[in-house]
Amino acid sequence: MTDHADPRPMTTILPDAMPPEAPLAMPTQSLRRFEPSKERRRPIRRFAVPWLARLAVFGGGAALTAYGVWEMVQVVSVSRTTVLQWVLVALFSVNFSWIALAFSSAVVGFIALLWSRRPSQAPTTLTRRTAVVMPIYNESTARVFAAVAAIRESIEETGLGSHFDYFLLSDTTDPDVWIAEERAFLALRQRLGPDARLYYRHRPKNTHRKAGNIADFVTRWGGSYDHMLVLDADSLMTGDCIVRLAAAMEADPDAGIIQSLPLVINRNTLFARLQQFAARIYGPVIAKGLAVWMGRDGNYWGHNAIIRTAAFAAHCGLPDLPGKPPFGGHILSHDFVEAALIRRAGWSVYMLPELEGSYEESPPSLIDVAARDRRWCQGNLQHMRVIGARGLKLASRQHFATGIMSYLASPFWLMQLVVGLVLVLQTRYVKPEYFTSEFALSPIWPRFDAERALALFALTMGVLLAPKVFGLTLALLRGSIRRPSGGGLRLVLSALIEILLSAMLAPMMMLIQSGAVFQILAGRDTGWQPQRRDDGSVPFRDIVRRHRMHVLLGIVTGVSAFLISTSLFAWMSPTILGLVLAILLSWLSGTLAAGLALKRWGLLLTPEEAVPPPIALRAAELTRELAANGFDEADGLRAIHADPALRAAHEAMLPPAEPRRRGAIDAERALAQAKLVDARSIDDAVAWLRPKERMVLLHDRALVALLAGLPGEAPADRQAYDEAAE
């Protein structure tokens, strides 16, 4: 950040940053013991469990898996089957069952969407209060405050704005970003006036990360609100969508969590536009299938969902897992666990996938996705210690199993490729074993039914691609999607581009996720870095460093496959090509130029990209206005030093100082104080204080007073003295 402060000082100290506290107890839940609460003891009878849909999904998936495994057994049973061939069958069984289940769920979603109804009219009245909460962590203040302001404006336009309050819950650890947040908050609330109902809180310690951030809000202010709508830092929701969620929660006294389906918007790099297109065209089919068979036993994705606050407080206090990370400690993927716990207590969790007006953004490059996936991978593998918790619904356990398998699938596919390669190598180069420990009239020699293998490969590809075909078919049938997506021809061509590029990127993702799984199994913990949300390209040297081993592996695999058999090389060519071109593909997919070029040609378009939602346009406009203030580029210490009103507001927002035990010296505070005492100007303080010392300073009213007392420039006589001493 640049070392300058906004020249325009705060002229008004606004009211309290947070409303009066309304505590709500949030006891820690046990995973080993569970006693149903009396008020939720009776099962929900008004809504039938969707047994038919579950039979179709799981029965259809099991039948398809059984057929695929039978065919695989026939492929390897041409002659006496070796141990390695049985290993190949076992790996195939696991991998095929995974895609078969996704296929059967997509079939159910496709059929349901063909018969889906239009949303009912928007509600005109509400009776309950809802807190709209956005946890933030070292984010761009212009972006997040603009999003909240746009959401607030949209809700106000519904005429039901008085039922909603807005909270920005900061866990920021960067001192400059923290002060930028406070300045943006003060400026925005001053702009909105006395009825802003906009609040801001910064946590001194980000204990338990996002889950702890939400829990802190619930235990301190949750008693004032019947519901809370949880957003992510890149979330955007229309007032109509939010009001409909609030009305749905009011109309259903059994609902604990109601999840919307966020669509990806505002993406411009090639990689992000691939994700945006896939989420818009294929996502609704997958989401609808999940919603149908899950019924009231649904899942929670951590944002763009409304939650019954009292039920969440009573049943979603997360325990720490025994032991050290990566499998112990606080739960990273908290949302799945919260959904399972609130469902265990008898509250319903479900999704409304047809609800329009829920949006999010996606990472701009493959490397950014890999960084996020590393954290998600650890969180989902932690669920292996939660899946057996006492009292969970079977569907909740299935959600955990799905999340776990979504990351274990990559190493399973990798092992299947390796075993297949070894078998072909053995067939070509290893001599048959004529004399074994068991009597045999013929040698043990791995053989395959080539014709059946080809047919099974075609079946596997069909099952894998079917959800995309279903989504594309629905988009072609619906003019409201087809026309703004460039028309039928461009839509089909876009789908082909997405399938081709995704297939070439898949080998890299397989290796990246496999590496993450192996690291976690080896005991390596992940950090918690803020997600990069802009469209800036990743430096080329970082791309080379990240993918150089992928390229080397691709070259070695390609040469080995070609030496073994040209047919093997041809069969593995998509994987080999994706790895050999890993650096080029990762660089190209993360660039703006490639994504914008396809956009100009009308490819990979989505309806929301062709005709941006008004709330997205308004958020972009507000982002530009707030960015013009320069808060994100300013040095936090200089801003506090230059503006007495900001300094007073900052001190007013600080929590009460914790008493210090005699003899307990905080090293960071001592260093910060010593540097401030030795400083002759604000320039010295800015130059000398490290980030941790700055955070300590900004949390301490006495140190802030020392900072405020520093002159803007060092006295001339002291400057001369310093120069002479040097």
Structure description:
- Belongs to the glycosyltransferase 2 family. OpgH subfamily.
- Keywords: Cell inner membrane, Cell membrane, Glycosyltransferase, Membrane, Transferase, Transmembrane, Transmembrane helix.
- Helices cover 58% and strands 6% of the residues.
- The protein is globular.
- The two termini are 29 Å apart.
- Helix 2 packs parallel to helix 13.
- The protein is α/β, with parallel strands linked by helices and 726 residues long.
- A seven-stranded mixed sheet has the order 3-2-1-4-8-6-9, with helices on both faces.
- Strand 2, helix 4 and strand 3 form a beta-alpha-beta unit.
Sequence stretches where pLDDT stays below 50 over 5 or more residues: 1-13, 438-445
- Major sheet: size, sense and barrel closure? 7 strands, mixed
Put simply, the count of helices is 28
Estimate the mean pLDDT confidence: 90
| Spatial gap, N to C terminus | 29 Å
List the strand order in the largest sheet. 3-2-1-4-8-6-9
Helix content: 55-70%
**Which shape, going by the Cα principal axes?**
globular
Structural class: alpha/beta
- The overall strand count is 10
In terms of DSSP E residues, the strand content is: 5-15%
Radius of gyration: 29 Å
Protein name: Glucans biosynthesis glucosyltransferase H
Membrane topology: Multi-pass membrane protein
Transmembrane segments: 47-70, 90-115, 400-425, 453-477, 489-505, 549-570, 576-598
Subcellular location: Cell inner membrane
